[in-house]
Fold this sequence. Notes:
single chain, alpha/beta, D-Maltodextrin-Binding Protein, domain 2, 2 domains, 5-stranded mixed β-sheet, 34% helix, 22% strand
Amino acid sequence: xxxxxxxxxxxxxxxxxxxxxxxxxxxxxxxxxxxxxxxxxxxxxxxxxxxxxxxxxxxxxxxxxxxxxxxxxxxxxxxxxxxxxxxxxxxxxxxxxxxxxxxxxxxxxxxxxxxxxxxxxxxxxxxxxxxxxxxxxxxxxxxxxxxxxxxxxxxxxxxxxxxxxxxxxxxxxxxxxxxxxxxxxxxxxxxxxxxxxxxxxxxxxxxxxxxxxxxxxxxxxxxxxxxxxxxxxxxxxxxx
Length: 240
């Protein structure tokens, strides 16, 4: 039975902390004598709120945490799978993909309106070029602008009237118990999500057999393989 201290790194947003709590709970159940410590970090993406998400580096939401992991400051890192850069960081591996929430996209609106019901010219916020393209393909008469910040901050901007609506991942809204603000959930064909959306990825160093053993116990192998295949398919699609 594994014992001792096991340090897990995460972003300090409320969503990241809730996701890390899920992983910590799984680790505690698998290793009851393990002393789990959570350490919080701000990534460059968390700090550079004036930069649209598509202009950020591929590792903007993982960079600081991955450095802490590489240097041995922490033993593992919890990420939203879709935040990981498509090219793996040297020396690090995804040791576990333990859970996944609903991967679909959702519309948040201050009024009970679906996307098709928004008045022409309505301002819709989105943090990704993929979501922006999907919105404009369905409603070219809408105005789409970047919206940055944590999930709860983006919802607050909509409710405050800064935007008429916003597109967000359903998984994050549900994990933050913000489902009451959702006015539409899109099917996967109408609004395709990012590869791995809703899944959690737990990283460790490739040369750390103790961490690998600890994390393997919480890995959902079938889910892990399915999400890896999603990413591979997405990469093949972009390269073709």
